[in-house]
TrEMBL record, chain A:
Protein name: Lactose/L-arabinose transport system permease protein
Keyword Metal-binding tagged: no
Species name: Nonomuraea dietziae
GO annotations of cellular component type: plasma membrane
Location(s) in or outside the cell: Cell membrane
Record-annotated membrane-spanning stretches: 24-50, 81-104, 116-140, 222-241, 273-293
Entry keyword set: Cell membrane, Membrane, Transmembrane, Transmembrane helix, Transport
InterPro entries attached to this UniProt entry: ABC_transporter_permease, MetI-like, MetI-like_sf
TrEMBL record, chain B:
Alphabetized Gene3D superfamilies for the sequence: MetI-like
Regions that span the bilayer: 69-91, 100-121, 133-154, 175-200, 233-254
Localization per record: Cell membrane
Entry's Gene Ontology cellular component terms: plasma membrane
Keywords: Cell membrane, Membrane, Transmembrane, Transmembrane helix, Transport
Name of the protein in its database record: Lactose/L-arabinose transport system permease protein
Family the entry assigns: Belongs to the binding-protein-dependent transport system permease family.
Membrane topology designation: Multi-pass membrane protein
Matching PANTHER family: ABC TRANSPORTER PERMEASE PROTEIN MG189-RELATED, ABC TRANSPORTER PERMEASE PROTEIN MG189-RELATED-RELATED
InterPro entries listed in its UniProt record: MetI-like, MetI-like_sf
Organism whose genome encodes this protein: Nonomuraea dietziae
Tagged with keyword Membrane: yes
From TrEMBL, chain C:
Protein name: Lactose/L-arabinose transport system substrate-binding protein
Signal peptide stretch: 1-18
Coiled-coil features, chain-numbered ranges: none
Species in which this protein is naturally found: Nonomuraea dietziae
Domain of life of the source: Bacteria
InterPro entries documented for this protein: Bact_solute-bd_prot1, SBP
Pfam families in UniProt: SBP_bac_1 (PF01547)
Keyword annotations of the record: Cell membrane, Lipoprotein, Membrane, Palmitate, Signal
Length: 300, 269, 434
């Protein structure tokens, strides 16, 4: 279906009565708004009510703020908060730095076969959850894992990737970085290609070295894009679920339990929907605070 | 010399990114008993046809691929239209409550996915839409990221271009189709890859919303192969490898447009 | 334009009426259709007898769907949370979820007493009926599969180490044998997924508890995770681990890979493994044997039912009667359940089934040993009822965290379990047993 079938005048006549200059924008956002109201606003309000109840189905009863009180006193919730924060602080900067360096390489005219490398680094972000889970559980095995095999070629003794709390967190960071670095690199690549060449040429004339050009031209020019990726990665990591779900199940001993995973366990494993909804609200609040704070900081 | 060092470094990164896929592709050609053996199998085996045939028998591979493609295409097209319309309004009209509506729509980015699933399921049930494709497609039509991307890129289109078309008597939809869409091709391509990816790999909601195996999408069908200790990994590997293919093809085809499209959305902070 | 809008309206109305039309008309004649949700390979067994059932009951049509495990749990859980709409009529539910569904979703599963399930009360292996009975005395599922724990061992490896496995009667003796085995052959005694928090990974620890008649909860619903038997079982694991005879099997396929390399001498797996091991490693024919596991204490019990799966009927199914008719047909007739066993590899809970010759016939794969017999013996002896409670899933998770602490961080068993028990009591609002 296209919008071009009817002739303009005909359209103007039939629509005149109810399509006015004033309500056009409202009509245009109507589908998006409807989707928002029905599939986002209503469920999140329903979840608010659920977070004030306990039990499910016929056994549901109103308990006020009990779930939120329980949340504050729940050591596992704090553990999940701590883990999520730790992964956020370590992983997001590393990944974005890698992505930036990678995009510089992918954009360099000195490099051969750029198209191939671009496709390759973007491939990980195309992976579905099932493929991801199967691949990494084989990669990260201790005794017969691909990563330990690779490291073994360089004389590294086998690492217990999923078995030790420390390495399990590192594993999550590695998997996340593998998954999303290419994605961010491609976004940066787009940004790099938009920087006017004249800027670099002028700097060269002034005798600026490569490092100098990077800091005084590339970084400032990329700033809006860097900002966008920081916000999106932060939101994504705060809601981190896939990696711990398929790789570690939150273990060992809850060292990779994230807020989203704890939410899932309470709802889908323990059928404690009221509590799960309370966790969801806490998470929403945290993400919102982070998002707003970052946007404020960047405006300055 | 420097070029070769850079190229070599990129080749190493490429290897790290693609290595797991290579292993996956090789695993798809071995029998379940051999897949996890040691040392890892980096050469093709002779079980690809057998694994594929078994997969076709147990999940109806061809049919399931068709279902997935149908859902992903319709969902992607629908979400693009919704995003484009809304983005157009937010970028090119000033109206009462514009900023409020925009912030509201974007705010859904912060809502964790699991929360909305039970209310939406109840709703779909009451509408009698369970086990139908509208149940899969409808909730994913209003995508905050898409609306954001569209608005940002539309801001870059000069108003004069639109006004010229309007003076000629074109309605708003016609302006959109004739003037806006052609210049927005790259951004639309980027959004299409993004949306298609999400729809193609979506698992939890289709699992919940679908009932009959003939309706299943690929991720849901692959999950049916799992049974406690007895998963047939030969089939799983083939299915997983096949599920990654369309995305690669799509990215290859749209690569150029995709990259410049992302740019349009990202630069106008 | 108008035409197109009209067309759209027609399309929409059409879609909606079509959607409404799919809801079933109760007055309609013709066979009743019931849907069974299960997972592979058990579903294959059920599908095999569904054909016979349809012949005997021409007014009922049965569709068996393999939903996949663990996918089936998300599906059932959300349907239940939404008031049971859209659920399959018959649901295959494992012991790790059944108590939770019974406890947290009143009315979610049908009370089968009304349909006559009580008459089969004594037909199943002892210890199972209390598991399917709710707090209100209702019967919410019928036992299908039962998994008494076994001790599958590589006779060739033990021979090489000069150990007579058949003489081992306690786990302490097994540990000594394991040390010799490791020294002589390099093989580990057992493999455990030391880091993961899955239910199957806790079977071994649970079997050590159950051998002592203990569990995470007692009959009063109090937390017993730090009781003396719990500590003793965990201490045993620690001893084994410290002796360096426990392989870590975390990661997909790790156990398979160790088994194929001859690095695992014992699989403390349940009855389903009798047919699984030959499927997995046909080339190791003749090397494996099976017996009942050693006891925790000298002279103690050597059997335990580590898990079981059941068929339940959805509480919102409009065809509960027909659904129950199928469940009863499939699970309470020896010849039918044995066919299910043959096709789906699911060890039946129905005791009358065991008189079939297959349970005592020698199996070439196991050196002509009657490999199913140790399990039948265990079930005939019977097990104590295990008090799972509606909070079993949470207990399982917390206990597995404690096990991880002990195995990976070398924590003191008593301390780790006391901490775990306190957390469990706090999270479930239960009392610690005195």
């Amino acid at each position: 279906m296209t919008f071009t079938l009817s002739r303009p005048r005909e359209r103007a006549r039939t629509r005149q009565s109810y399509v006015t200059r004033r309500n056009i924008p409202y009509l245009l956002i109507m589908p998006a708004l409807l989707g928002f109201l029905v599939f986002k606003a209503y469920p999140i309000i329903a979840a608010m009510y659920i977070s004030l109840t306990t039990g499910a189905g016929a056994a549901r009863s109103f308990v006020g703020l009990d779930n939120y009180v329980r949340l504050v006193n729940d050591p596992l919730f704090w553990t999940s908060l701590w883990n999520t924060g730790l992964i956020l602080v370590v992983q997001v900067p590393i990944m974005l730095l890698f992505a930036l360096l990678l995009s510089l390489g992918l954009n360099s005219p000195l490099v051969r076969l750029r198209g191939l490398w671009r496709l390759g680094v973007f491939m990980p972000s195309l992976t579905g959850l099932v493929a991801y889970g199967v691949m990494f559980s084989v990669i990260l095995r201790k005794d017969a894992g691909l990563l330990n095999w690779l490291l073994g070629l360089f004389g590294v003794t086998p690492i217990d990737w999923l078995g030790s709390p420390f390495w399990a967190r590192i594993s999550i960071v590695i998997a996340l970085t593998w998954h999303y670095t290419g994605y961010n690199a491609v976004i940066y690549l787009a940004g790099l290609q938009s920087i006017p060449k004249e800027l670099y040429e002028a700097a060269m004339v002034d005798g600026a070295g490569a490092a100098r050009r990077f800091w005084s031209i590339t970084v400032p020019q990329l700033r809006p894009i860097l900002a966008l990726t920081v916000v999106l990665s932060t939101i994504g990591t705060l809601q981190l679920f896939d990696e711990p779900f398929v790789l570690t199940g939150g273990g060992p001993d809850n060292s990779t339990l994230t807020i989203s995973l704890y939410l899932y366990q309470n709802g889908f494993r323990y059928f404690d929907f009221g509590y799960a909804a309370a966790i969801a609200y806490a998470l929403t609040l945290i993400v919102a605070v982070f998002g707003i704070a970052q946007m404020r900081l960047q405006k300055k | 010399m420097k070029g070769w060092t850079l190229t070599f470094t990129l080749a190493v990164v490429f290897g790290l990114c693609v290595g797991p896929f290579y292993w996956l592709a090789m695993a798809a050609t071995h029998s379940t008993a051999d897949i996890f053996s040691w040392p890892p199998k980096f050469y093709p085996g002779d079980q690809l046809a057998a694994n594929t045939a078994q997969l076709e028998e147990s999940i109806g591979l061809v049919r399931v691929l068709g279902n997935t493609l149908y859902v992903a295409v319709v969902q992607t097209a629908g979400a693009i239209v919704v995003s484009l319309l809304a983005g157009y309004a937010f970028a090119k009209f000033s109206f009462e409550g514009r900023d409020l509506f925009f912030v509201l729509l974007l705010s859904t980015l912060v809502i964790p996915g699991g929360v909305t699933i039970i209310p939406i399921f109840e709703m779909m049930n009451d509408l009698g839409l369970i086990d139908s494709y509208p149940a899969l497609i409808l909730p994913s039509l209003s995508v905050p990221f898409g609306i954001f991307l569209m608005r940002q890129s539309l801001l870059a289109i000069p108003d004069e271009l639109l006004d010229a078309a309007r003076v000629d008597g074109a309605g708003e939809l016609r302006v959109l189709w004739r003037v806006v869409v052609p210049v927005m091709r790259p951004v639309l391509a980027a959004l299409a890859v993004f949306l298609f990816l999400g729809a193609w790999n979506d698992f939890l909601w289709p699992l919940i919303a679908l009932r009959t195996p003939e309706m299943y999408t690929l991720p849901v069908a692959l999950a049916t192969l799992q049974g406690l200790a007895r998963t047939d990994f030969g089939q799983v590997m083939v299915g997983t490898a096949i599920s990654s293919l369309p995305m690669m093809i799509l990215f290859l085809v749209l690569q150029r447009q995709f990259i410049s499209g992302l740019l349009a959305g990202a630069t106008k902070g | 334009m108008i035409d197109r809008r009209a067309a759209l309206a027609v399309l929409l109305t059409g879609a909606l009426t079509a959607a409404c039309g799919t809801t079933e008309d109760p007055g309609q004649a013709g066979p009743v259709k019931i849907t069974v949700w299960s997972w592979k390979p058990a579903s294959d067994g059920l599908a095999a007898v569904a054909k016979d059932f349809e012949k005997a009951n021409p007014n009922i049509k049965v569709t068996v769907q393999a939903v996949g495990n663990p996918a089936i749990w998300d599906k059932i859980t959300i349907d239940m949370a939404a008031g049971g709409k859209g659920l399959g009529d018959v649901l295959h539910i494992g012991i790790d979820y059944l108590p939770g569904y019974m406890d947290k979703f009143p009315g979610g599963l049908a009370d089968l007493r009304k349909l006559g399930a009580d008459s089969h009360k004594d037909a199943f292996a002892k210890g199972l009926w209390p598991t399917v009975t709710g707090k209100d005395g209702g019967v919410y599922a019928m036992p299908w599969e039962v998994n008494p724990v076994g001790f599958f061992y590589r006779k060739d490896l033990f021979d090489k180490a000069g150990v007579e496995v058949e003489k081992i009667t306690t786990w302490d003796e097994a540990i000594e044998a394991g040390k010799k085995l490791k020294e002589k052959t390099g093989a580990f005694l057992v493999g455990l997924n030391k880091s993961a928090a899955g239910s199957v990974d806790m079977d071994f620890y649970q079997s050590l508890l159950q051998q002592q008649g203990a569990f995470y909860f007692n009959g009063q619903g109090e937390v017993t995770l730090s009781s003396a038997p719990a500590v003793q079982a965990m201490t045993l694991l620690k001893k084994m681990n410290d002796a360096g005879i426990v392989a870590d099997t975390s990661g997909e396929g790790t156990a398979k890979q160790l088994i194929s390399g001859g690095k695992l001498a014992v699989l403390p797996w349940a009855a389903w493994a009798v047919s699984y091991i030959p499927d997995m490693r046909p080339e190791q024919k003749g090397l494996w044997r099976v017996m009942q596991p050693p006891a925790v204490t000298p002279g103690g019990k050597r059997t335990a039912i580590v898990n079981s799966t059941h068929l339940a009927v959805s509480g919102t199914s409009p065809h509960q009667k027909e659904a129950y008719t199928f469940v009863e047909y499939a699970l309470t007739r020896p010849e039918v359940i044995n066919k299910v066993f043959k096709e789906g590899g699911v060890f039946p809970a129905l005791t009358a089934a065991y008189s079939d010759p297959r349970y005592t016939e020698p199996q070439p794969y196991y050196g002509d040993q009657p490999a199913l017999k140790p399990f039948v013996d265990a079930l005939t002896e019977g097990a104590d009822a295990t008090y799972y409670s509606g909070d079993y899933a949470r207990a399982l998770k917390i206990a597995s965290d404690a096990q991880t602490k002990v195995l990976l961080k070398g924590a003191d068993p008593a301390a780790a379990l006391t901490e775990a028990a306190t957390l469990l009591a706090q999270q479930t609002n239960r009392k610690l047993a005195g």
